[in-house]
Amino acid sequence: MDTGDIVEIQQLEAFCHHAVDHEDQSLLHLAFTDDARFDGRLCGGPLCVGLQEIIDFFALGKPPHPPSHHMTNCWVREEDGRVLVKMKWMVPDPSTGRFNIGINDDWVVRTDKGWRIKERIATQVYPEPSGESGSLP
Known about the structure:
137 residues, 6-stranded mixed β-sheet, globular, single chain, alpha+beta
């Protein structure tokens, strides 16, 4: 992995948030692999296995999803033969007027179409999740 890869991966991470906020789910295939896993259980969402389940999850609309997704502090690294990304996210919760904040831990892979997210684990860190359903990731 070189500097060019890191830039492409950071662009992928930023683009993914635009894709989930897009008016439909037509961009998600540009962010996730066909066999991707999206684990939102640590912030009130489901475990989605495969691109179609991820598409179906985001097709639920807003609400239950927040009106916008924002990311920051993107850190790309290699560990045990995998390319991993840790970044912070924040989403407004219209029901409370505050931002929910969390961390995404991603495993990204290079495909013949560019870098894609193979696995995402979303963890809410603020406010601490109560177990009640609220704004989904």
